[in-house]
Amino acid sequence: MKEERAAAAETKLIADGIVSVTFDTNLTEEAVPGQFVMINTHSEAHLLGRPISICDIDKKNKKLRIVFREVGFGTRELGSSVTGEKFDILGPLGNGFPLEEAENADNIVVIGGGIGAPPLLALVKALPKEKVTAVLGYRSEANGLFLKEEFENECSNVIIATDDGSAGTKGTVIDAMKNAGIKADLIYSCGPMPMLSAVKATAGKMGAKAYISLEERMACGVGACLGCVVKTKNVDEHSQVKNKRICTEGPVFDAEEVDI
Length: 260
Ligand SMILES: Cc1cc2nc3c(=O)[nH]c(=O)nc-3n(C[C@H](O)[C@H](O)[C@H](O)COP(=O)(O)OP(=O)(O)OC[C@H]3O[C@@H](n4cnc5c(N)ncnc54)[C@H](O)[C@@H]3O)c2cc1C
Ligand code: FES
Fold this sequence. Notes:
Elements: E1 2-15, E2 18-24, E3 36-39, E4 50-53, E5 56-58, E6 63-69, H1 73-79, E7 86-93, E8 108-113, H2 118-125, E9 132-138, H3 148-154, E10 157-162, E11 169-170, H4 173-179, E12 186-190, H5 193-206, E13 209-213, E14 229-231, E15 243-245, E16 252-254
Parallel strand pairs: 8-9, 8-12, 9-10, 10-11, 12-13
Antiparallel strand pairs: 1-2, 1-7, 2-6, 3-4, 3-7, 5-6, 13-16, 14-15
The structure holds flavin-adenine dinucleotide (FAD) and FE2/S2 (inorganic) cluster (FES).
């Protein structure tokens, strides 16, 4: 983990309210898919960093990409960044997706709900293309099917679900999986909590192993404030209760381990 003042190299609006920012940074040296960074705002009134998942890691050119939805002050500031503008970035933080699990899997399914899709792009780039199906859920085609083409370049199959049925299956990512008859023996997923609960239940029914990334609210991002705990099955060594800190023991968890 390092703290660095990194310059924005490219900022692009890629869908309605969804922005991609690429930074020039040495944090790429250690980064793995599934980790996140804390990015500070320029405002002294907003002291906490904003956690954002790593969407792409270009180690050769030292470029780290994030893709996020503009929701408040911090993400709007980042979304209007200009080339060369510098941000204090702490990272890479948390654990990554366990890539070794993919070695013995034949059918790997990555499931991204809305703004949960970006961290899965770095992941699929590290997985064998022929084994991977991506299932991506969006609000509607009109809002933009962001990253869809990039997933198509990296996966053998891409299935789409939209809330309004304007593209792919009308409904959830689970509906789209059922519609397409997709079976998995290994699932990696990121998205809103109700979707992750459904992914956990679906994996259980299929007998698949599932790893989920939890993007809940955070304060310190480094394990100190206990502001990001999730209930787990087993007693945590640090807190001696059935809790784990999403920022340090996560954000990626074995779905069986967490109580969601
Ligand atoms: C580990 C992790 C990874 C994340 N990765 C991404 C990512 O790749 N892309 C992305 O778009 N977002 C991601 N998020 C969510 C992102 O951190 C928040 O959207 C961001 O911090 C909001 O900051 P803000 O200053 O723009 O909004 P604020 O002014 O702080 O809040 C504005 C609104 O956003 C809501 N909000 C704030 N934090 C979160 C949160 N963590 N989750 C959901 N809603 C929130 C608030 O409740 C409020 O309604 C991630 C969160 C975590 C914990
Ligand atoms: S955000 Fe402080 S412990 Fe996780």
